[in-house]
Design a protein that fits this description.
The protein is α/β, with parallel strands linked by helices. The chain contains eleven helices and 17 strands. Strands 5-4-3-2-1-7-6 form a seven-stranded parallel β-sheet, sandwiched between helices. It has a five-stranded antiparallel β-sheet with strand order 8-9-10-17-12, with helices on one face. A three-stranded antiparallel β-sheet has the order 11-14-13, with no helix packed on it. Helix 9 links the parallel strand 6 and strand 7. Helix 4 runs parallel beside helix 10 and helix 7 runs parallel beside helix 8. The chain starts with a helix and ends in a 9-residue tail after the last strand. The N terminus is likely disordered.
């Protein structure tokens, strides 16, 4: 018995060991793909430096110019306090910087619905979107191996950029990514302060992030992530000096369109002259780029006039909104985008796929030209108060255009309205009677006030609107001879 007992005990060890091995193998095989260790990612294949075209792809450039209207989105943890994004770090104490960065610990936009954002942008007539993947503060709104300061950490834990690009792409919009080469988080953590919040010192050797990369390698790595992990990225938009990153982007994806960093992109202003090349005017719906409670919001009419003058000058308008901290687009911005959507539904043909006419405007009438088509669009403000001498009180206006010359096939119409407009031509130009008969929206007659606050006298104070510029379509016309550029 003793000998048998010892023999049994000797067998226990190998049996237990074998059982543990088999259990481990079984458990490993039973792991879900998300639980299993991810395989090492393949290195990004870069074009040789001597093979890279250091300019935008001509085809993508024409697509960009045809698009005309884009949605800009500035968003980050700072939205919780209604500050401007990143800039509160400039000239701030270390104590304040820490408070600003601590906002990332409470940024949890639980009401974020990327599909709703994308539907609203599509409704507004947008053709592309540019989203801030990383602003100057260094917070990454995408999953990255190069920084721990990112949205995929706690408390939100989801890749916002991935969700957004999928939703916008589903609605048919071109996807653009904003990336700031300036990175104050790098400056603050490494102690290597550059000359300015906005600046990027690509020679800085201090290691940063989980992978302990130098500054330029850290940012090149993130550019590779952005251009290879999120499907077809139409545009990358570098907000700051970016030469090594721009070149690297083209080595990763030769046909990616580079916005700022390669084309003019003025902020909060519109250049005074037409330019027949790619450029983009970046404007906000209010004053601040990031979310601001109780904003000083622009009127819809101002936004539309900006769009018209930009397109007449050959540029694109990139209109910015700053979402709320909970993930919703703020109500004033939603209202402006819905207004824009109504106007684009009526007159969007006149600002898509167009180029500058031989003049940008004749007085307050602005003009665009559809490429290779002989079609010109004229944007006209209507008169809602024709006076007692006129029996027809429909909104309208008579305009004369001197830069156009008709042909036997010329037709004149108001976009979205059935029928043709009355017109004639003489030595003084093309005379058009613009009259809106289409009933779109009820408005108070511009320039009048109701007799009573309750608007009982509606016959005087109500008209068919909206009170925005209309677009007249003039087909099969030629430039008038000896008519030079004119703009004001």
């Amino acid at each position: 018995m003793k000998i048998h007992r010892n023999r049994s005990l000797k067998m226990v060890g190998p049996i237990l060991w074998l059982g543990l091995v088999l259990a481990a193998v079984f458990i490993g095989c039973a792991k879900t793909p998300t639980e299993a260790q991810e395989p090492a990612k393949a290195a990004v294949t870069l074009l040789p430096e001597d093979k890279v075209r250091l300019s935008n792809d001509p085809r993508k450039t024409e697509l960009f110019r045809d698009a005309g209207l884009g949605l800009f989105i500035h968003w980050g943890p700072n939205s919780q306090m209604g500050t401007e994004i990143s800039w509160p770090l400039y000239n701030a104490t270390d104590e304040y910087v820490k408070k600003y960065y601590a906002l990332a610990e409470t940024f949890k936009p639980d009401r974020f619905d990327p599909a709703e954002w994308a539907r609203l942008a599509k409704l507004a007539g947008m053709e592309y979107v540019v989203f801030t993947a990383k602003h100057h503060d260094g917070f990454c709104m995408f999953d990255t191996a190069y920084s721990d300061f990112k949205i995929t950490g706690k408390p939100f834990g989801k890749d916002i950029l991935a969700l957004l690009v999928e939703a916008f792409r589903r609605e048919g919009l071109l996807v653009g990514i904003y990336y700031s080469p300036g990175d104050f988080r790098y400056q603050f953590e490494t102690g290597h302060r550059f000359s300015h919040l906005y600046d990027a010192d690509f020679t800085s050797p201090e290691p940063f992030g989980p992978l302990k990369k130098t500054f330029v390698d850290y940012e090149r790595g993130q550019v590779e992530e952005l251009l290879t992990r999120y499907g077809d990225i139409f545009m990358i938009w570098f907000d700051g000096k970016c030469e090594p990153l721009k070149t690297h982007a083209w080595r990763v994806k030769q046909d990616v369109f580079v916005g700022r960093g390669e084309i003019p992109t003025p902020e909060q202003e519109i250049p005074g002259k037409a330019s027949d090349h790619a450029w983009e005017s970046c404007l906000t719906t209010s004053i601040q780029w990031s979310y601001q409670p109780n904003p000083d919001i622009r009127s819809t009419k101002e936004i539309l006039k900006n769009l018209i003058s930009i397109r007449a000058r050959g540029g694109n308008m990139l209109l910015n909104v700053g979402p709320r901290p909970d993930g919703r687009i703020a109500d004033p911005d939603v209202d402006r985008l819905r207004d824009l959507g109504l106007w684009m539904m009526l007159y969007g043909e006149a600002v898509r796929g167009i180029r500058p006419w031989i003049v940008t405007n004749e007085g307050d009438v602005w003009l665009t030209n559809r490429r290779n088509d002989g079609t010109v669009y004229a944007f006209v403000d209507l008169d809602y108060n024709p006076g007692p001498a006129h029996s027809n009180r429909l909104p309208g206006r008579a305009v004369t255009l001197k830069s156009l010359k008709s042909t036997p096939a010329t037709k004149v119409s108001l976009l979205s309205q059935a029928g043709d407009l009355e017109w004639k031509e003489d030595a003084q130009g093309l005379h058009i009677k613009v009259e809106r008969k289409q009933t779109v929206q009820m408005i108070r007659t511009p320039g009048t006030k109701p007799a009573k606050p309750d608007m009982e006298n509606s016959a005087i104070s109500i008209a068919w609107g909206p009170d925005w510029p209309v677009a007249v379509k003039i087909t099969n016309v030629q430039p008038a001879e000896n008519f030079g550029p004119k703009e004001k």
